[in-house]
């Protein structure tokens, strides 16, 4: 089985519901939308990511012979149902926000319109794909905003929650503005620039730190960055200064040094002075070691002479906000609008669109959430992505997606760009959508309205 494409990447209740739907003849067209119910306290905005993998999944969706044999052997499902699964393909339509787009609570970033069985069965994997990349892209965007002008690199594969997560984190962080990744397979799959220095173990292998520096420099001279805090960072910086003329004679330039521990502000200042006094003013300082956007923001405020950062655990786990309250909800079935009225989880019914307005400087000033049929002023954010189960156009390049994210980050209101606590963005729910919600409530005999 291809683990990333398997139709069994779903929850059992999806298959349970599917068999019941088909036995009852519930096969009409359904509309589902993926959105985030509410923003976490530390997220004033989110960045949409994962659409390419979601479309790949939908376009290639099918049960393999091996998967069908396993389902049959489980004894859970009828033979007639399994025959229908064998023929099942995704034939629906998709509207979506392009990857790299900033969005806010209750705004759908993907809409699926398809026969009920198809639209329902893909729910779990779509949430899985869109949630994680959006989570990491949003975290990476905060880091990008906290460290303007600095080079940021994804160092997080080893702490990611599995191989796919590590690869998708590299992709999502690159979309949000990172310079590249240390994950080699991400470079091979996505063309993301690769960055790597050295580990403390390399230095420890040699009895002489300077000899370790020289051995590494001669083996890997291009973009040479030496790790200098294995023992004493200041002493190591002086060794780099002493070694630099010898390396230069061999055509090797010391591009940078890396600090991975300690008081990085104070240490970077002392190391910067040593390098400058030693004629290495062009040698950069790169820092790593459990950093997040709060650290980057603090370093920027203090004017730390650090030129770039490697971000690991806090990026790939989004450690401060490890999950988003995202859902994929039925909004219409058989031509009738649907909603959920559960306390705290109520939804707005119908096929929706988001319109965004900008000020004279091109900055975002507010969004309107309404029915797709209720044309509003502003730019509509959801655009057609698939028709009848096939993509409408070739996928954008990763650099094109990255450019869109950069543009959206530049267009955020200043309080959001500054990551100010409590900064909010206005999203208006239009009156036609509110009226439809009341109509559906009356039809269902409900009193509670979406919140």
TrEMBL record:
The cross-references to InterPro entries, in alphabetical order and at most eight, read: Aldolase_TIM, N/Namide_PRibTrfase, NAPRTase_C, NAPRTase_N, Nic_PRibTrfase-Fam, Nic_PRibTrfase_pncB, Nicotinate_pribotase-like_C
Classification via CDD domains: NAPRTase_A
EC number(s) given by UniProt: 6.3.4.21
The Nicotinate phosphoribosyltransferase N-terminal domain, residue ranges: 8-130
Pathway noted in the entry: Cofactor biosynthesis; NAD(+) biosynthesis; nicotinate D-ribonucleotide from nicotinate: step 1/1
- Ranges where the Nicotinate/nicotinamide phosphoribosyltransferase domain occurs: 152-331
- Report which reactions are catalysed by this protein: 5-phospho-alpha-D-ribose 1-diphosphate + nicotinate + ATP + H2O = nicotinate beta-D-ribonucleotide + ADP + phosphate + diphosphate
Domain Nicotinate phosphoribosyltransferase C-terminal: from-to ranges: 379-436
Specify the enzyme's EC class, one word: ligase
Q: Which GO terms describe its molecular function?
A: glycosyltransferase activity; nicotinate phosphoribosyltransferase activity
- Post-translational modification (record): Transiently phosphorylated on a His residue during the reaction cycle. Phosphorylation strongly increases the affinity for substrates and increases the rate of nicotinate D-ribonucleotide production. Dephosphorylation regenerates the low-affinity form of the enzyme, leading to product release.
SUPFAM superfamilies xref list: Nicotinate/Quinolinate PRTase C-terminal domain-like, Nicotinate/Quinolinate PRTase N-terminal domain-like
Cite the entry's keywords alphabetically. Answer: Glycosyltransferase, Ligase, Phosphoprotein, Pyridine nucleotide biosynthesis, Transferase
Q: In which domain of life is the source organism classified?
A: Bacteria
Tell whether Transferase is among the UniProt keywords. Answer: yes
Report the protein's function.
Answer: Catalyzes the first step in the biosynthesis of NAD from nicotinic acid, the ATP-dependent synthesis of beta-nicotinate D-ribonucleotide from nicotinate and 5-phospho-D-ribose 1-phosphate.
Task: Please give the family membership noted in the entry.
Answer: Belongs to the NAPRTase family.
Q: What is this protein called?
A: Nicotinate phosphoribosyltransferase
């Amino acid at each position: 089985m291809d683990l990333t494409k398997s139709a069994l990447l779903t929850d059992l209740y999806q298959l349970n519901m599917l068999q019941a739907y088909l036995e009852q003849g519930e096969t009409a067209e359904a509309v589902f939308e993926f959105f985030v119910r509410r923003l976490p306290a530390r997220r004033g905005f989110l960045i949409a990511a994962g659409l390419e993998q979601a479309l790949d999944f939908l376009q290639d969706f099918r049960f393999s012979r091996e998967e069908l044999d396993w389902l049959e052997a489980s004894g859970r499902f009828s033979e007639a149902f399994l025959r229908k699964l064998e023929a099942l393909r995704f034939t629906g339509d998709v509207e979506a926000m392009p990857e790299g787009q900033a969005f806010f609570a209750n705004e759908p970033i993907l809409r699926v319109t398809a026969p009920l069985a198809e639209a329902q069965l893909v729910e779990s994997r779509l949430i899985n794909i869109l949630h994680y990349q959006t989570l990491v892209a949003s975290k990476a965007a905060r880091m990008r905003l906290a460290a303007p002008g600095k080079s940021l690199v994804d160092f997080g594969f080893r702490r990611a929650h599995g191989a796919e997560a590590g690869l998708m984190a590299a992709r999502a962080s690159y979309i949000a503005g990172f310079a590249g990744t240390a994950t080699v397979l991400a470079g091979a799959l996505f063309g993301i620039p690769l960055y790597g220095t050295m580990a403390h173990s390399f230095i420890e292998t040699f009895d002489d730190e300077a000899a370790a520096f020289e051995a590494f420099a001669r083996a890997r001279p291009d973009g040479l960055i030496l790790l200098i805090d294995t023992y004493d960072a200041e002493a190591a910086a002086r060794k780099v200064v002493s070694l630099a003329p010898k390396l230069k004679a061999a055509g090797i330039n010391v591009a940078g040094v890396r600090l991975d521990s300690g008081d990085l502000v104070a240490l970077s200042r002392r190391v910067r002075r040593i390098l400058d006094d030693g004629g290495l003013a062009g040698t950069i300082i790169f820092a790593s070691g459990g950093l997040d956007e709060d650290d980057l923001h603090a370093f920027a405020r203090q004017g730390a002479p650090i030129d770039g950062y490697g971000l690991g655990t806090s990026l790939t786990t989004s450690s401060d906000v490890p999950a988003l309250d995202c859902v994929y909800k039925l909004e219409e079935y058989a031509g009738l609008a649907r909603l959920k009225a559960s306390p705290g989880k109520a939804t707005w019914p119908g096929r929706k669109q988001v319109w965004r307005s900008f000020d004279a400087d091109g900055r975002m000033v507010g969004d309107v959430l309404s029915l797709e049929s209720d044309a509003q002023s502003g730019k509509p954010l959801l655009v057609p992505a698939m028709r009848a189960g096939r993509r409408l156009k070739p996928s954008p390049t990763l650099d094109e997606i990255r450019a869109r994210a950069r543009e959206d980050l530049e267009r955020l209101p200043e309080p959001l760009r500054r990551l100010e606590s409590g900064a909010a963005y206005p999203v208006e729910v239009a009156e036609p959508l509110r009226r439809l919600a009341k109509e559906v409530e009356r039809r269902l005999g409900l009193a509670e309205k979406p919140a």
